[in-house]
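step 3/5: co-fold with 6-O-phosphono-alpha-D-fructofuranose
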Amino acid sequence: MPSAHTGLQTLSACLSRETLAGSLRPGLATVVAALAASTQRIAAVVGKGGLVDILGSAGLENVQGEVQKKLDIVSNEMMIEGLSATGHLAALASEELDHHLPVAGVQAAERYLALFDPLDGSSNIDINAPIGTIFSVLPAPDGAPSDAAFLQPGRCQVAAGYALYGPATQLVLTFGQGVDVYTLNRDHGEYVLTSRGVTLPRATSEYAINASNQRFWEPPVQRYVAECQAGAEGPRGRDFNMRWNGSMVGDVHRVLSRGGVFLYPRDNKLPRKAGRLRLMYEANPMALLIREAGGLATDGALPLLDIEPTGLHQRVPVVLGSAEEVERIVRYHADA
Ligand code: P6P
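step 4/5: write tokens
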């Protein structure tokens, strides 16, 4: 059913159509609808900015040892609340929770696990720059939920996506059959389909990396970025552009929208950390989206979706985006 207001397909209509067609399981549609509704509620709060008491630090630390922003806590509570009554979620995991959280009342045979970073890019909150919510859905194994039940490789995800709270609020979603983009019609409180079957170009001249870490990078990344910076006079024979959002959702959305390569590589700034980004609820959902859009996503060597997880909050190096550039970076790692 198109929206009465825009004529565009609403998210709920798309989910219903795919469910009736048998290409989407009804329980998964229910879980994704609840995820989307939760992001709408977060978008409404984010959009208020300094008008309500949600900016600044909450003065608490999360399991990552990161100081939590007030909006980190509020958005996490909104995600938990919004996922509490689907009847199809056995448990959830969040960047803001040390361990998994069982969800009461799951009776259905069709059971899932939801993982999320409720507010990605927290450092952007107080400067009104892009932030987002990243989510991933896994099948729930039989038996009582546990942290270990979540430790499935990214290729097992049955749905993944993010909401980007920018000038427009957009929901980017995949069920493993391509990537669709929905834009929130704020006047009528519904997501409407605005791009279907998003793909990204194999070639690009745009890269994204936090260049302030340059002295800590491993040689393959040093080489790749130096060649990009050498531009037309260098071995690449063309100039490159660089962008850095400070929010993975913002950078990945640009890569999905016009191509590019995003790197948060392993660095020796904190050698005990394998990278900055978390595998289960940042790297894996983004890797599924990028694969479904025709790109590649690796840790520099292995496809991210094939990594066997060892911990709910484990970190991983991330290189993702346009295939030609990711393949080059993987070659440089192999040659090292
Ligand atoms: P840096 C945000 O905190 C985040 O987890 C990602 O969204 C983002 O890509 C990265 O960290 C930014 O890291 O080192 O630039 O602050």
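step 5/5: annotate
Residues 76 and 118 are 5 Å apart (CA to CA).
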